[in-house]
Amino acid sequence: MQIFPNEFLDVIIQFKGVFSKRIYSHVQFLLAGAILCQGKRTISSVLRILGLSKVKNFGKYHRVLSRANWSSLRCSKILLHQLLKLLLPGDKLVFGIDETIERRWGRKISKRGIYRDSVRSSKSHFVKCSGLRWLCVMLLVNVPWAGRVWALPFLSTLAPSEGYAQKQGKVHKTVIQRAAQLISLIKHWLPDREIIVVGDNSYACMELLNRVCKLATVIATMRMDAALYDFVPPRLSGQRGPNRKKGDKLPKLTEVLENPQTVWQMITITE
After folding, report:
1. Angle at 197 (CA atoms; ends 196, 198), nearest 5 degrees
2. Tens of pLDDT along 62-75?
């Protein structure tokens, strides 16, 4: 007997090759329950909304996330191509990239760290929160019936703190380094598409721009009083001393704005 509608099965059938036959049957229930569930989408809430709260072998649904072997990267790639086929058939794609804190507690959550809460913090008030830091990439799509641009997340990676890497004896990867890896991965998935990545002022740094300048266009906000420097000049033969980390200092954006000799170009921005 068929339990799910054909519209639902037509969408998730492309993910069937990622899971084994037994796990895939559990995944169908978890996806359907996650869509119908309100509030926190835990396994218990999903089973409750599907009327399976009294099922005896409920542990098999938990093992989909804790023990089953499947690739989240393959799922992200399939989901991205589904979104593009449905919403964006053109050549130019706009992605958003940002961090989010999943507030989690517990001694067994080893990758938990203390981070700045950007929602509750302000210029004069600093608020910290404990949890897992995720770096997420979203496809920005202008949804016609919504009348606005929606951010549809399809790829995320955990970005632990430097303290966790030191405890594990591993090389720490900064958020910028992980962001460059995600942008390179998206370009590898979509080699023929023009990619534009939009982020906040955390991504307005030369390290990221240098690593992805040939792969994507990065647009990030920047403070008007930010200290700007030119690229490091090539080292001369016979030059003594350590290598320079910064080039010549450039005028600040406020100085460029107030300079009467600045040449402006008029552009029109549409939604």
Report:
1. 120
2. 889 888 899 999 99
